[in-house]
Design brief:
With about 375 residues, the chain is an alpha/beta fold. The strands form two sheets. Strands 4-3-2-1-5-6-7 form a seven-stranded parallel β-sheet, sandwiched between helices. Strands 9-8-10-11 form a four-stranded mixed β-sheet, with helices on one face. Strand 10 and strand 11 form a beta hairpin. Bound molecules: magnesium ion. The site of magnesium ion has 4 residues, from helix 7.
């Protein structure tokens, strides 16, 4: 049976690479959603001929409607439109590569529609991991990781016969463009400096998150939910070459790793074809050409966002959601030139003492905390 995909965030880095995989594997695409890029999504719609397309931005959606007037493709607007794409009746798998916690609602919509989920939107789990897994268990939905580190762990876990024998997960981090820098040296770095990632080509938000290493903190929280691990059983090691994508360690101290060239099309394809593997567009890993692989302890005193996330997930409740939303706001303000690089941590950390404690929470509570955290960061 041909796979039928709905791709959310189709015009972004993961989205376009997912369509690359879909094209090569001959998958059908029944829905496409993005934020505002009408020109690119029109091109994608003409190639893949989905039933429904959506843009979050209302103006851009109106423009897209005009562009696709000669087709019978339904054009939808707003987050509701994205949710409609997430539950499109013909698709069997939703690839969610929306940026930020805006991806949470579409993930929940996809679960309710009983779609298999290939998740590239880590903020979905950081902000609402409990809501997502409660619903996924209720509807019997499978969530497969697309994030390269989590895909690596998921692949290694195929070699784990009994999860009770698993001691810890080890996430690798490239260290980003500012590896080895001191706090002093980071004071005046520019957006341009921060956007120069050494190994991965990604969107702007996640590239800044890699520079602050907030990305690794968010990934730690993502791993807690995906693999049902305690935060203290997840280690982080800096690996500059991004060849070893992550590792798992057993009780006998034996360690399994997954390696490959840093190209997202391997984890994307694995999430879509699991448990099968096929030829991929990514080149072979030539270890002799790599030469040496290096590993370092993260500099937690300089890149404080990692431990901020560790603290948030250890506190539990809506603390991870608050830190995530605060970071989304601070990351945006840095990219807009409104605050300095180090202010991203300062402002994100400031919300922890100011949010109420929740024992249990709903989607509406997450949205309330989201608004509060953004406001606190804005008015810091
Ligand atoms: Mg990653």
């Amino acid at each position: 049976m041909t796979k039928v995909l709905s791709v959310l965030g189709s015009t972004g880095s993961i989205g376009t690479q997912s369509l690359d995989v879909a094209r090569k594997r001959g998958y059908r695409v029944s829905a496409l959603a993005a934020y505002s890029n009408a020109e690119l999504i029109e091109k994608q719609a003409r190639e893949f001929k989905p039933e429904t397309v959506a843009l979050v931005d209302e103006k851009a959606a109106a423009d897209l409607k005009t562009r696709l007037a000669d087709t019978d493709i339904k054009v939808r607007a707003g987050l509701e439109g994205v949710c409609e794409c997430a539950s499109e009746k013909n698709c069997d798998t939703v690839l969610n590569s929306v940026v930020g916690m805006a991806g949470l609602k579409p993930t929940l919509a996809a679960i309710e529609a009983k779609k298999k989920i290939a998740l590239a939107n880590k903020e979905t789990l950081v902000a609402g991991g409990k809501l997502v897994y409660e619903k996924a268990d209720e509807y019997g939905v499978e969530i497969l990781p697309v994030d390269s580190e989590h895909s690596a762990i998921f692949q290694c876990l195929q070699g784990c016969y009994d999860k009770k024998q698993l001691k810890k997960l080890i996430l690798t981090a490239s260290g980003g463009p500012f590896f080895g820098k001191t706090i002093e040296e980071l004071k005046n770095v520019t957006v341009e400096n921060a956007l120069k990632h050494p190994n991965w080509s990604m969107g702007a938000k996640i590239t800044i998150d890699s520079a602050t290493m907030m990305n690794k903190g968010l990934e730690l929280i993502e791993a807690v939910w995906l693999f049902k691990m305690k935060p203290e059983d997840i280690d982080i090691v800096v690996h500059r070459e991004s060849i070893v994508h992550s590792l798992i360690e057993f009780d006998d101290n034996s360690v399994l790793a997954q390696l490959g060239l840093p190209d997202m099309r391997i984890p994307i394809q694995y999430a879509l074809t699991y448990p099968d593997r096929f030829e991929s567009p990514v080149g072979e890993l030539d270890l002799a050409k790599c030469g040496s692989l290096t590993f370092f302890e993260p500099d937690y005193d300089t890149f404080k966002c990692i431990n901020l996330c560790r603290k948030a997930i250890s506190l539990g409740g809506l603390y991870p959601a608050a830190v995530n939303s605060a970071n989304e706001q601070a990351n945006k303000m840095f990219r807009e030139g409104k605050i300095g690089f180090l202010d991203i941590y300062e402002r994100s950390a400031s919300v922890l003492e100011k949010i109420p404690v929740y024992d249990s929470y709903t989607y509406e509570d997450v949205m309330e905390i989201d608004a509060l955290a953004r406001e606190l960061v804005e008015n810091y």
